[in-house]
Amino acid sequence: MSVQIDALDRKILAALQEDASQSLDEIAKVVGSSKTPVWTRIRKMREAGIIGRQTVLLDAEALGLEACFFVLIRTSEHEADWQQKFLHALQTRPEVLEAHRLAGDIDYILKVRVPNARAYDRFYQALISEVRIHNVTALLSMEEIKSTTLLPIEDGAQENGNAP
Amino acid sequence: MSVQIDALDRKILAALQEDASQSLDEIAKVVGSSKTPVWTRIRKMREAGIIGRQTVLLDAEALGLEACFFVLIRTSEHEADWQQKFLHALQTRPEVLEAHRLAGDIDYILKVRVPNARAYDRFYQALISEVRIHNVTALLSMEEIKSTTLLPIEDGAQENGNAP
DNA sequence: ACGATATATAGGATATTTTCCTGTTTTTGG
DNA sequence: CCAAAAACAGGAAAATATCCTATATATCGT
Predict the structure, then answer these.
(1) Of residues B130, B150, B94, B80, the one with CA closest to residue A150
(2) Strand C closer than 7 Å to the CB of A2?
(3) Cβ contact (<8 Å) for A94 and B150?
(4) pTM
(5) Structural domain containing residue B110
(6) Which residue is the nearest neighbor of D6, CA to C1'?
(7) DSSP letters of A51-71?
(8) Residue B94 and residue B126 in one domain
(9) Distance between CA atoms of A120 and A139, rounded to whole angstroms?
(10) pLDDT of the residue at B2
């Protein structure tokens, strides 16, 4: 096992994802510790990959990205090289913000952010010309009710999935 | 109009969302400017809400959140107070990371992160006991192919949707 | 239960960075 | 083409990150 996360780590993670611009002293005060352990733990969790990218969330509309689509994809092809081409296409296109392979009759779901419906169509045409896809349904978002990167962190007693 | 974003602003935004821990001097060098204009522009874009939360992206699996569902919801009710109750339920539940109101025959889509399938069922039971919902389809993610908060920022010439 | 070793913690010193100020250059409008 | 305004570059003081040292806490074998 790489790193075991304890209650203090979880408090630090919660504070960090809430506001990563806080100083170590502020975080230390919030989590009830001092800056050295907070700093050491952050460094270790960064190295372990528990803490990933430090970023800033931007207003998509202000950047002219006014349309958001969820795309449900069914395919008949499940060969290795088809899948590889498909994955590569998704990963290189910056308008694809999320892509998941699913269980069930729908094979993939994408979240795509584009300036407008025309830009979505361009994306769609480019995608289906690049890889063969059986069936596509696009769901257009009318309203972003909620959008957060804040993961729910259990700060209570540690509930462990498997007994020790 | 609140703030007009120019090419330098876009470069700064791109640098920031790529790595928000960079110093002003580093960003200034990358975007080809000096720290004062970079700092002023960041401050203004923060105030204008173009730049939102500064955060850190965490590894959900490392935190024990191993299951991700996309939930497609159809409802027959479209009255104001039903909708308000529904929105409130979504916004207060931390396992709901995204919620969109859609155009078309599916009314809402949610993205839900939970420790496991049992936790999803608890969430689902709690939700349908709180608000009346006509039809629900849960899509289980088997693999997160891509997940990014990096919005595509056109750093070329400024393409404007409406003519001046 | 006790002591020896390992580990975590608190607070302080230095290097870096943010924040703001001052003088200069560039752009804009008449 | 000149005046007014805006943006810019670099520098100084305050705040912060990073690392060090000493102290406290926990762990393990006997």
Answers:
(1) B94
(2) no
(3) yes
(4) 0.91
(5) 61-140
(6) B37
(7) EEEEEEEE-TGGGT--EEEEE
(8) yes
(9) 11
(10) 59
Same domain, B132 and B65: yes
- Between the alpha carbon of residue A123 and those of residues A104, A115, B42, the distances in Å are 25, 11, 31
Tens of pLDDT along B67-120? 999 999 999 877 899 999 999 999 999 999 999 999 999 999 999 999 999 999
Low-confidence ranges of chain A (pLDDT < 70): 1-3, 155-164
Specify the nucleotide whose C1' lies closest to residue A44 (CA).
Answer: C8
Asked whether residue A31 falls in the same domain as residue A65, the answer is no
A36 CB below 7 A from strand C atoms:
yes
Considering only CA atoms, which residue is closest to the C1' of nucleotide D16?
Answer: A23
Find where tokens 């027959």 sit.
Answer: B76
Do the beta carbons of residue A20 and residue A54 sit within 8 Å?
yes
Within 7 A of a protein CB, which nucleotides of strand C? 8-12, 16-22
The answer to whether B23 CB is within 7 Å of strand C is: yes
Residue B159 in domain: no
* Minimal Cβ distance to B58: which of A17, A102, A144: A17
